[in-house]
Structure formats: structure tokens, C-alpha cells
Amino acid sequence: MKSKIIFNPLLWPTAFTVLSLLILISLGTWQIKRLIWKENLISFYLNQFENKIINLNHENYLEKEIQFRQIIAKGKFLNTNEIQITGKTYEGNAGFHIITPFLMENGQIILANRGWVSEKYKLPDSRKFSLINKIITIKGIVRFPQKKGYFVPINNPKKNFWITIKPDEIKRHLKLNNQNFITNFYIDLLRDGKKIVLPIGVKPQINLRNQHLSYAITWYSLAIALLIIYFLYHVSEGRLVLRKKENVSKS
Hints:
Elements: E1 2-7, H1 11-49, E2 54-55, E3 70-77, E4 83-90, E5 93-104, E6 109-118, E7 136-143, H2 167-174, E8 186-189, H3 212-236, E9 240-245
Parallel strand pairs: 2-3, 6-8
Antiparallel strand pairs: 1-9, 3-5, 3-7, 4-5, 5-6, 7-8
Helix pairs in contact: 1-3
């Protein structure tokens, strides 16, 4: 005795299910691609960060791949030309990143992201303790100019509204027409020791969220669940049945 599956799919549930499956599978596959991209980015960051530290006063790395490299430079902050980048958080608290031009001893100027401060300490006068006026050596990691996202507002220098770090645009606004102003990259300053002081610099450890695998599993699981519901629905409607077929013997 053989079994035969009889399946008479309904039009609209089938059309909805097929379209939804395509969307869910596409989202899951996109997350897998993002997972691969993020893992490659983390690997690249670690390789760059652990590489030789660049002394910007003595070495010219402007045309080389230096994203995420550690860098040191000796000079002084141009505190009167400070700007604040809005929309930044630290442990869930809203605040700003302090961007200050740094004049090196070799005459070059580089933008330094000194780190995070709260609304209370946004203006320089509210944190005079942070305004270093002497010659110092800073240490940080190289970051390339930021790109504006699709839903991110543009910088408005006239209203002192900054949300994206673009060295070339900041240079024009500050009118620092120094030909040795570095616009290819800027520096995120690293925290100095375990003690937290304002502005709060970045941690040397990588902190890139990588949850794309869990997202991919979620989308694929939803696709499987939808498929099960689709077939169970057709079973309940009597459109998906398993019938036993009797063998007819010839005499």
C-alpha cells in the first residue's frame, strides 16, 4: 500500500508566504554578509592596533593605510578653536565629543578627539581643568573622516552644530589656513591609565558589537516558522492530506 500527498494550495496565503519567505531569507543572508564584514573589520582593527606606533612628528604616513594605527604626537592644543560634536553617549548618558586642533612641534596641525563630556561640561569655561596649555605628548588611534549617514543631519557651522567629524570642513570653519593641516585623518585620544578624567577618551580595547549571527538565526527561524504555519493551515483546511493508495493486484 502506497501513500500519496494531495496538496491544493490557496492563492493568497501562498502568495503572502512566498513573498514573506523571500524577504526573511534575504534579511538573514544580509546579516550573514554583515557578520563576515564585521569579523574582517575586527581582525583588521586588531592587526592595525598591534602594529608599530607611529610618531607623527617624525614620520609621514599620510598616503599609507593607517586606519586604527596607534599614533603619538608632541605639541600643544589650540583650545580656543575647540568644537563639540553632539549626539554622543557614554554608558547611556548623552553628551558631546570634544574636538581640538593639535599643533605639533613640526608645524603640522591634526584634529584630536579628546573624548566625551556631559552637557554640564560642554563649554570650555565649565571645565578649565581640562584646558591643557603646555607642550604635551598625546597618544591615540587614527580615524578617517566620518561619512554622514542617510538619516543624520548635516553639520551647521554657523549655528555651531556638529555631528560628523570632517577635518576639511572643520578646518574651513576655524579658518586655520595652515597648509600643514592634516585632513586625511584625525586622532581618537586613548585613555591614560585606569583613572577616568574629562574628557573621557576611548578604550584601547576593541568594542565593536557583533550580533549579526543571532540576527541571522532570528530571520531564518521566522522563515521556518512561517513555512510550518503555512502547511499546518492547509492541513486544517483539508488542502494538504496524505492518502493511502491501495495496490490493485491483477489476477
